[in-house]
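Prompt: May I have another protein with tokenized structure?
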Amino acid sequence: MKLQIHVWFQNLGIACSIASLFTLFFRLSDFAWVTKSVYYIPVFFIIIFFMSMMIADDIRNIFKKLFWYEKRKIKRPIWQVGIGFIFFLAQISTVMVFSQELTHPQLGGMPLFLVFAFMNSFILTVIYEEIFYRTTIK
């Protein structure tokens, strides 16, 4: 089955999120030795990333079924929230694994990387929609 490029972007975001979160969980546990890095990239992250690329399409389809995406008359709003959340979670989890020093600056009590991730995910969602889901104006 040949996947479209927008599905690949979604799967990459899901796989990156899964790999980063698992790497973060192992880094915080007693099994931190598993997350040894080569050129600042945890080996565990690479292994989990490739494993999660195999299941990312299934996870995306499960969430579609879970939220009754196919039964909705207007499918676009749930898609916009979904892709925005994928972008948001991928950015946060990547920062938590690769650049933990960026998690300390605060903006009014909220970590600054959360603010930037939210703004970036909003902009990326708009760009993503303009590239892949253009509508013709009559």
The longest helix spans residues 5-28. The beta strands are 37-38, 41-42, 106-107, 110-111.
